[in-house]
Amino acid sequence: MALLEIENLHAEVDGKPILKGIDLSIEAGQVHAIMGPNGSGKSTLSYVLAGREGYEVTEGSIRLDGHDLLEMEADERAVAGVFLAMQYPVELPGVTGMTFLREAVNARRKAVGEEEIDAMGFLKMVRAKAKTLGVTDDMLKRAVNVGFSGGEKKRNEILQMAVLEPKFCILDETDSGLDIDALKVVSEGVNALRTPERSMLVITHYQRLLNHIEPDVIHVLAHGRIQKSGGKELALELEQNGYADFVEAAA
């Protein structure tokens, strides 16, 4: 059974249809990439999966590990193992990084009947994971994402992913605004989290990210539908030729 199974998914925003029949199956341990032009529905798909308000599913189904994702609220999806790394991470003034991480981890542990982790044990665990991502103690003491550079925000999100250990990770244009050094650090952090049990959906405009995070399958999304699927050669084809053929074919 696929870890994530999407069938005939239709969704709209403010009454405007955006997703027009998405079919997607991701096995446990697989990394799938979705590429497509602006306005194709890439971010809408990520928000629908995460349960963001304002995105209405009008038809179809989404199942995670056999469970109906559409029956769950956003916080219930997080407990079930869904994680969204956003294109533009939000700032949380007044909430330190360490407090945010510990509250998130303990909320999830409590929801599944596990004991909460104590402050010292948590500090030790976070510092070990943070070090590999170039997240300093100073960053953890600061309010979440406040005054962070683009690269710091993205490293901070990958740290959240490493600490929460989700079952299914959605990376929405994680490479947006990153220089090559930051891209390498973030990609190495993502690759370190690849396991036979964890699946990922990587949403990106550019082939350069896929040089660092190598997907098992690449899909082209245009006009709210998956127009073509393939291997890494598909990303290289898109880099050379752009999306014009897919946009015209779908129009």
Describe this structure in words.
The chain is an alpha/beta fold. The protein has one domain (4-250): Rossmann fold (3-Layer(aba) Sandwich), CATH 3.40.50.300. It has nine helices and twelve strands. It has a six-stranded mixed sheet with strand order 6-9-10-3-11-12, with helices on both faces. A four-stranded antiparallel sheet has the order 2-1-4-5. A two-stranded antiparallel ribbon has the order 7-8. Strand 4 (55-64) and strand 5 (67-68) form a beta hairpin. The chain is globular. The mean pLDDT is 91.
SS elements, strand count: 12
Largest sheet: number of strands, sense, barrel closure:
6 strands, mixed
- Indicate the radius of gyration in whole angstroms: 18 Å
According to CATH, the fold-level topology is Rossmann fold
Helix percent reads 25-40%
The first-level CATH class is given as Alpha Beta
Number of domains: 1
